[in-house]
Structure formats: structure tokens, C-alpha cells
Amino acid sequence: MKRIWIKARPRLVAAIVGVLLALPGVAGAQESGIDYTNTVTVASGATVEMEADVATVTFGVRAGNVDASTATRTAADKTQSVVDALSAAGVTEDELTVSGLSLNRKTDRRGNFIRYVASTVVKLKTDRLARLGEFIDAAVAGGASSIRGLSYNVKDRSGAVDQALREAMAFARDKATALAESENRQVGPAIVISEYDSRPPRSVSFDTGGGGRAASAESGALMGTIVPLAPPTIEARARITVTFELI
């Protein structure tokens, strides 16, 4: 896991009382009767980078026909074919979700009827990223019409934030220690800790260009080149202010 520290500007409370009152949590602590004469307050932050460990791929399945029932039936058959192909490739039921069937009436620019288009969505969510390309190829070979979306995330989102908070706290103590030592003092326990801007990992999504892109077994290689299969780096961050006692 790689860490990136965000620069913080620590402040000695005894010297700059007015600035401290603007920091989150400090005003409330002062109202509680805390004596800030022998304290030091620092603003600290940490960003933790981690490799994505789960991916979600959304496949579109479409079928068209001048007869609505035929279009619907064909789309349902193609959807089952995609699911069967993914299952044969080793995808489990827990990794698959199939959305409901929709039916749209297509017309030309003059409003003349052309055909009905039925569509479904097959969603694959897996943590077996090493096999993601294999699974995509299976879906395309099974009859998927497009790759509508691809996103990566981390499974333990709260754990990532906790790690960033721990890093931020360690950084805060290091900075407070440097300040205290410049005044021949030592840092005691933290008496006020305020979290003000922590963010869990956000999913990283890629535009596959597949919203209307037709796919077939022959186009599987092409679709593999436009889908980034390498897991991206995802960030979680934490921002805190900490007031330490000086001893």
C-alpha cells in the first residue's frame, strides 16, 4: 500500500488563538473548559492508495424484429445464452445479475415504424480480476451486444478510510512533536480530535464506448483492446485536526 502525505500547516494554539477557534471542533472544546495555554493544535491529512480488487462489467443484450413478441423472445434467448456462456467460463450465480426486459419502438426520421428493439442487461461483479478478460470474451461469444460500462472499486471501503485516519493521526503527532521540541516541550495525549473531510474510495469507471457498439464473437478481440483490464489505483483520504497537551 502506497501512502501520499498531504502537507499540513501546524499552529501553536497559545500564539494564535483566533485561528484555532476557526478549526472544526476547537470552539466546542473551548466551551467545555479546556485550557489551551499548554497545548498545540495541528491540521493533518493522509491519502492512502490501493489497487482495486473488485470489478463490475455491464453487458447489453439487444434483439430487433418487426414483431414485438419475436423481438422479446429473441432477446430473452440471447440473454440466456450470455448467462450460459459466463457460467461455462466459471462465473458463479452470485457474481451475475440480470435486469428486466425492456421494449422500444424504433422509427425513422419521419416517424415511420421500423422495428421493435428488446433489450436486457447482464451485470458481472467479480473479485477475480485475473480472469476478467476471459469472462468478457465469454459474454461476447455468448451473444452480448455491447459493454455498457466497466468500473473498479475496493471491497473494504470502510477499512480504507480507517487506514487513512490512522496515517493522518500518526502524521499529526509527528508534526506536533516537531513543534513542541522547538520550544523544549514534549507532546502529551491528544485531548481533542476532529475529523472534517474523510472520503472513502470512489469507484473508477471507464467509458467503453459500448453503449451502441455491436459485438459478436468476431469482435471480441477488438472489445478486449478498448476495455482496460489492469486494476487502477483507488484513493481513500482523511483530514483531521488534533489538539495535544504539552508537557
Can you put this structure into words, describing what you see?
The protein is of the alpha+beta class. It has two domains: 2-49 and 156-200 and 236-246, no CATH class; 54-153, 2-Layer Sandwich (Alpha-Beta Plaits), CATH 3.30.70.2970. It contains six helices and ten strands, in the order βααββαβββαβαββαβ. The strands form two sheets. Strands 3, 4, 5, 6, 7 and 9 form a six-stranded antiparallel sheet that branches. A four-stranded antiparallel sheet has the order 1-2-10-8, with helices on one face. α4 crosses α6. The longest helix is centred in the last third of the chain and has 26 residues, at 157-182. It is elongated and about 85 Å long.
Give the terminus-to-terminus CA distance. Answer: 35 Å
SS-based structural class?
alpha+beta
Radius of gyration computed on alpha carbons = 27 Å
Annotation field: number of helices? 6
Please provide the ordered H/E string of secondary-structure elements.
Answer: EHHEEHEEEHEHEEHE
Q: Percent of residues in beta strands?
A: 35-45%
Give a brief outline of the structure.
With 247 residues, this protein is an alpha+beta fold. The protein is 31% helix and 35% strand.
Name the features.
alpha+beta, 6-stranded antiparallel beta sheet, elongated, 35% strand, Alpha-Beta Plaits, 247 residues, 2 domains
Please give the structural blueprint.
Blueprint: E1 2-6, H1 17-22, H2 26-31, E2 39-51, E3 54-65, H3 68-88, E4 96-98, E5 102-107, E6 113-126, H4 132-142, E7 146-153, H5 157-182, E8 187-195, E9 204-206, H6 220-226, E10 233-246
Antiparallel strand pairs: 1-2, 2-10, 3-6, 3-7, 4-6, 5-6, 7-9, 8-10
